Amino acid sequence: xxxxxxxxxxxxxxxxxxxxxxxxxxxxxxxxxxxxxxxxxxxxxxxxxxxxxxxxxxxxxxxxxxxxxxxxxxxxxxxxxxxxxxxxxxxxxxxxxxxxxxxxxxxxxxxxxxxxxxxxxxxxxxxxxxxxxxxxxxxxxxxxxxxxxxxxxxxxxxxxxxxxxxxxxxxxxxxxxxxxxxxxxxxxxxxxxxxxxxxxxxxxxxxxxxxxx
Length: 213
Hints:
Number of helices: 6
Mean pLDDT: 89
CATH class of the largest domain: Alpha Beta
CATH architecture of the largest domain: 2-Layer Sandwich
Radius of gyration: 18 Å
Structural class: alpha/beta
CATH superfamily of the largest domain: YqgF/RNase H-like domain
Strand order of the largest sheet: 7-6-5-8-9
Largest sheet: 5 strands, mixed
Number of domains: 2
Strand content: 25-35%
Distance between the termini: 22 Å
Helix content: 25-40%
Order of helices and strands: EHEEHEHEEEHEHEEEH
Oligomer: single chain
Number of strands: 11
Shape: elongated
């Protein structure tokens, strides 16, 4: 479940695109690397725009892994999500599951196949909704599921978020409400993910519906 991700390298020469993609990767807790050595081999995932592809060829850099071509017109969050999924070696991201835990902060986790793409905590339902919609839009999958944990105590954000999701999600996306009891009872360190917050842990458990009544 906590699969060790391969490195993500950036060979994007357009400064604006490079900054936006790097920011999106870091927002999802993925730290991109630069390519500095000519004639080198890089093992992992490389992101390159048109000029970046020319640079790789000119510098004789061999990509052993996945090369993703990037356009300045693309959504940087979509680029980041595609890169992370590729770095986890996920060939079939189905089912694609989003887990959401509501509390003082909101935990959001994305599972592609059996790999945790990200698990993080955000401050409000607007940011959570944006992250959920981006994940579902950017990662192709035959089956998409959003699971929201039902809070054990009154939570004003809960109804807002569920109503917003019901309006925003495509008809083919399954929306499920699941009990939140003990949803954070998952070890805080999962290989490849580092230290997780309570909200992020709960979101992973909710995504997996791995809950105890």
